[in-house]
Amino acid sequence: MARIGYARVSTTDQDLETQINKLKAEGCEVVRSEKVSGASRDGRNELATVLDFLRPGDELVVTRLDRLGRSTRDVLNLIHECEQKGAVLTVLDPHVSTRGEMGQLVLTVLGMVAQMERRFIKERQREGIEKAKAAGVYQGSKPRIDRATICEMHAEGVGATAIAKAVGCSRMQVYRVLRASPAG
Fold it and tell me: Which residues does the entry assign to the active site, renumbered to this chain (predicted)?
């Protein structure tokens, strides 16, 4: 029976150390961590590794439920996957586990709260952007692709693969830019 810790932060400038230290202090022999959004499971390779590694009697430990996921459905699916493997999930703050029926109920409610919190964050972000746009302050994100260079290279007869390599994007992005351009 192993205690496996999972730590996650959303952005690369956030620190994982506090979570990792708490998990180790709780007796987790293995701690996997990653810096990726919890909005979905996409790109969460360490979580996938932990789930693959779980065996009957093991315990997956997270510091808070929102470290596991921001969607109630996703959290419930993760709990179900743990149960299917004969493992339990323990959340340290607040301390609750899937060992008993009450723990399952509390985790479901906490999952709903995490999802609601994510909606509130997105709503505040949207309101802030709208306010900044109205004040003429919002610039939007920087363009990731040099559209002018793509169009110029295409006009010179350079193929999509060569353009993609030169600009540092995918061929599909090159095709999208060309379709959206007036000359497209």
Answer: 10 (o-(5'-phospho-dna)-serine intermediate)
